[in-house]
Amino acid sequence: MSVKQFRPAFDRGFHNLTFGLSMFVLLLLVAILAFLVMGSIPVLQNQGLSFFISSDWNPVTDVYGALPAIIQTLITAIIALLIGVPVSFGIAIFLTELSPAWIARPVGMAIELLAAIPSIIYGMWGLFVFAPTFGAALQRWTMANLAPIPVIGPLFASPPMGIGIFTASIILAIMIVPFISAMMRDVFTTVPAVLKESAYGLGCTRWEVVYRIVLPYCRAGTVGAVMLGLGRALGETMAVTFVIGNSHRLSASIMGPGATISSSIANEFVEADSKLHTSALVTLGLTLFVITFIVLAVARLFLLRLKKQAGH
Amino acid sequence: MLTTFKKGILGGAALLMAAGVFASAQATEISGAGATFPYPVYAKWAEAYEAKTGVKMNYQSIGSGGGIKQIKAKTVDFGASDAPLTKEELDKAGLVQWPMIMGGVVPVVNIKGIKGGDVKLTGPVLADIYLGKITKWDDKQITDLNPDLKLPSEAISVVERSDGSGTTFNFTNYLAAVSPEWKKNIGVNKSVQWPVGVGGKGNEGVASYTKQIDGSIGYVEYAYALQNNLAYTQMKNKDGEFVSPTAASFAAAAANADWAHAPGYYLILGNQPGAKSWPITAASFILVHKSQEKPETAKEVLNFFDWSFKNGGEIADKLDYVAMPENVVDMVEKTWSADVKGSNGKKIW
Fold it and tell me: pLDDT tens for residues B28-73?
């Protein structure tokens, strides 16, 4: 028998194998979702929707409200993106378009190394080095100068502890920069040199080449990089637990202590004795799952619209 | 080629067999999990006990709630908790509980120029600080207690435990005993809804937050206050005297504890009478199952605690814990022989 006779069978086997592996992912997803839904039944039966809109989190009376954790998860992730995305963008542009090779290589390596640092290390650094410095330097200043301003003042009013929602956001921003910039850099390098050369040939400036050639070419990849960063910022646990101050309170100040969904789970899961407390934490997990799903869905829709506009 | 391969396999098999023999020769290992508060002393006891008997004690300090959960699930040989279970809870889960070691919960402060023992507080003032009603260090209620100190006009940053813990249970239990408002609005638990403040994870977390935040107040187990060089406060006790946290003042509070009349040893040492008593003294408890499926292991567990009761006092002193007095030890061992049995009903102790 020759190899040729085996080929169809082999191909079919290969197809089945990879098909099975892909189905495994779906199965895993369903299993996780089922676990979360089942775990959240007790607290939802007990409290209903008030779980999502109340800000009472009281293990003594067994009443749980997730609103502060949900809002503060979103706030920290958004601030982290606002800081992290422009920085990453700048890094990626510099590395692919502007820098000489002798800088690009070591900086590129540094980015990859930063991405590999475990998050708990960022948390420890944040707690022992960043937070005290931040509290002493910036927070005293914001308290003295920004807090007295009407309307936006309360946003900055908090004792200069160095620990709080804003500190957590900055640590998150630092953590997502390597991810976003590494991915953006890889995407930017896929732009065919001939496209850029022709643009330069027409007399475009560097900025015009980046803005009119590189970016449109890499739109999907860039959005993907940002979404990856957002996903990490939403779910990041240990580093946030170290520096956010862990309090279930809605406060007007972004400098004050707060809690995210994942930091609450990390903090309380081991010691949650009552059935409702455990269930409340599982429901928080489910909420984070849903939020992440929505974020990904919105990103998909956004990409679809971009594609339509571009006329593909 | 083949011969080296064979040799390798044979060598490996021999090694495996040797390892098997070795493992079964020292199979006695007992495991426990729970409270972080007594962890330093249990770890030292285990070290000394292993050196003496070769029996290894493996203790995971995962917190009191975790300890209760693990012993109920029978994944460990004993559980440890700073918050005692009530008699009903014990009976329901088929558990026996006894006090193993005592220590103190200590308020610690970080104010520039203030050393350990400088600041005096009363229970109600401490409760008002944690309720967010007293917000500045130069509040009249604090300066009245400390006429000789120059306290700054600085905001008080309150630090608490964010994870559930026996330390928090004993602390909130004390606040509830001295402040009706605390009892009514916040209550007593391993974790509560704190009205103000930031939460650190574990004794270590509270210690490091307190160390870093200017003008902060926190509460930690005494050994952690010492290790981190934190400035503890003096507290006014039930008899109206100001006392510092020391092994002697913990022992004074413990001396007044009436273990004999506490069903299931359910007794909380907070706010005990006595001129020298530290008001936030706490006992830590051990939990085992009444009916033991593996009586040999259970026997090893009891052997370990018996040894610790009788030989562990010095180690406890060094770490600023207070060992249980002899009459309590006798009572506890009587409980062992009465209540801890093999699943066949045979006595273990």
Answer: 899 999 988 899 899 999 999 999 999 999 999 888 888 998 999 9
**CB burial readout A222-236, b (16+ within 10 A) else e:** bebbbbbbbbbbbbb
Provide the whole-model pTM: 0.84
Taking one residue from A and the other from B, the number of pairs with CB-CB distance under 8 angstroms is 91
Assign A311 a pLDDT band (cuts: 50, 70, 90): low
- Which of A258, A269, A48 minimizes the C-alpha distance to A165? A258
DSSP for residue B260: G
What ipTM does the predicted assembly reach?
0.83
Q: Which of A139, A237, A240, A246 to mutate to test the interface with B (most CBs of B within 10 A)?
A: A246
Q: Which of A88, A93, A122 is nearest to A229 (CA)?
A: A88
CA angle A93, A98, A99 (to 5 degrees): 105
Mutation target among B37, B129, B163 for the A interface, most CBs of A within 10 A: B163
Q: Which residues 222-261 on chain A approach chain B with CB closer than 8 angstroms? A: 241-242, 245-248, 257, 259
Per the listing, tokens 């030890």 go with B329
Are A141 and A238 in contact by the 8 Å Cβ rule? The answer is: no
Which amino acid is located at B205 in the chain? G
Strand B29-34 to strand B56-60: parallel, antiparallel, or no bridges (unpaired)?
A: parallel
Strands (E), B115-178: 120-121, 157-161
Structural tokens at position B181:
């408002």
CA atoms of A311 and B7, how far apart (whole Å):
69
Report the largest interatomic distance among the alpha carbons of chain B, rounded to a whole angstrom.
89
- CB contacts, 8 Å: B208 with chain A: 127-128
Q: How far is CA A276 from CA A54, A57, A104, A279, B230, in A?
A: 15, 12, 53, 5, 37
CB B83 within 8 A of CB B282: no
Q: Which helix (H) or strand (E) element contains residue B221?
A: strand B216-221
Q: In sequence order, which residues have a C-beta less than 8 Å from that of residue B100 and are 6 or more positions away?
A: B38, B80, B283, B284, B285, B286, B305, B308, B324
* b/e burial code for range B121-155 (CB count within 10 A of at least 16 → b): bbbbbbbbbbbeebeebebeebeebbeebebeebb
Closest residue of A to B161, CA-based? A246
Element (H, E) at A121: helix A119-125
A161 part of contact set with chain B, CB < 8 Å = yes
What whole-number distance in Å separates Cα of residue B129 and Cα of residue A160? 18
Which residues from chain A sit within 8 angstroms of residue B197, using beta carbons?
247, 257
pLDDT band for B23, please (50, 70, 90 cuts): very low
